[in-house]
Amino acid sequence: MRGNSTTTYGAVTKSFHWLIALLIITMIPLGIYANGLPYDTGEALAFKAQMFSIHKTLGVFIFFTALARIAWAISQSKPALLNADKRLEAMLAELVHWTLYAALVLVPLTGWIHHAATTGFAPIWWPFGQGLPFVPKDDSFAHIFASLHIVFERVLAISIILHVAGALKHHFIDRDITLKRMLPGTTEPDSVPEQHRSALPIIGAVGAYMLALVVGVNLGLFAATEQDSVPRLAAVESGWTVQDGTLAITVRQLGSDVEGSFADWTAAINFTEEPDANGVYGDVEVQVAIGSLSLGSVTAQAMGPDFFDAQTHDTAVFKADILEDGLTYTANGTLTLKGMEVPVNLPFSLQIDGDTAVMQGQTRLNRTSFNIGETYPDESSVGFDVAVTVNLTATRN
């Protein structure tokens, strides 16, 4: 029998049940294992990414399998509860069932949204891309769904424990065939008690999720990340005031571009349309708060000692003279980063309309020049080249 009856589960329902059980038993330990893996070398990073890719790919498969399981359940008769005469026990069992169904969808979905909202590290192994419609690439958005993923994971784990405990109680204490009905073969109960249908289990499941979210908030899971709370740099005196702009970087990791930006930086700009006797149009000093960097899923790794070492070197400084370079300009100077001072040339375009200037520039740096990523001596995991892009609008003081 492939479909359900009023007293037994069919082969399709049993197959869905045990397939999802096998996937969950695989997923939870794999996620814990992958999260604890080191990434201090290129080989370690590649292996960690591989484990997370398996975890994410299985998660997407679970999501669609759970949807199919729910759709099948809706289309089928619901076998009678064998403990329906124990009203409270039956209601709690239904509550756990609804909570578990929801978790099978919410856990992979929130993980998938978190993945789509960030960049880098471990891709999903399928041909349909890494993004999702209406999901922006935004670290704050990703942080919310990462926190939801954690909360719903706990709900899933508790639901599974209660579900298994209930099945074992039926088998060893009540000695009924509730567990046997989900095993291969057809087992009919001798009799079934009168059934009582109620919306209370669904309401209870919703309440369980609301309670889980309250607990998550109180535990600080949704609080601002460490990068969000980095002290801001003090304002600087400048001939031009930056009204808005971005300071972004792009790195290559495991064959994919990872884009990020610094939320906190200042620019002391002194620029005149006419050069001095040495052909210098002015100068610029940019200070960058390293801890304000958001770099997708690898932000924490980037802050570590082997990379930016934000705890020891919290600020980078770029000092340069502004020179003409054909039809454009260039900021020619030095960048001090992680204790290393390296010559840097930043070509940029400049449009001035009255007292408003719009500047766009890009340069490329070699991470090895700043002793960044020394345990990644080749480009198999992390590329040497780092693209730096600056866009800003400033007004003359």
UniProtKB/TrEMBL annotation:
Membrane-crossing residue ranges in chain numbering: 16-34, 54-74, 95-113, 141-165, 199-223
Keyword field: Cell membrane, Electron transport, Heme, Iron, Membrane, Metal-binding, Transmembrane, Transmembrane helix, Transport
Any GO CC annotation of this UniProt entry: plasma membrane
Superkingdom of the organism of origin: Bacteria
Cofactor(s) this protein cannot do without: heme b
Residue ranges annotated for the Lipid/polyisoprenoid-binding YceI-like domain, each copy included: 239-395
GO BP annotations listed: respiratory electron transport chain
Pfam assignment, any one: Ni_hydr_CYTB
GO-annotated molecular function: electron transfer activity; heme binding; metal ion binding
Record's subcellular location: Cell membrane
Region forming the signal peptide: none
SMART domains: YceI
Membrane topology listed for this record: Multi-pass membrane protein
InterPro entries in the cross-refs: Cyt_b561_bac/Ni-Hgenase (IPR011577), Cytochrome_b561_oxidase (IPR052168), Di-haem_cyt_TM (IPR016174), Lipid/polyisoprenoid-bd_YceI (IPR007372), TTHA0802/YceI-like_sf (IPR036761)
Protein family (similarity comment): Belongs to the cytochrome b561 family.
Descriptive protein name: Cytochrome b561
Source organism (scientific name): Litoreibacter halocynthiae
Highest classification ranks of the organism: Bacteria, Pseudomonadati, Pseudomonadota, Alphaproteobacteria, Rhodobacterales
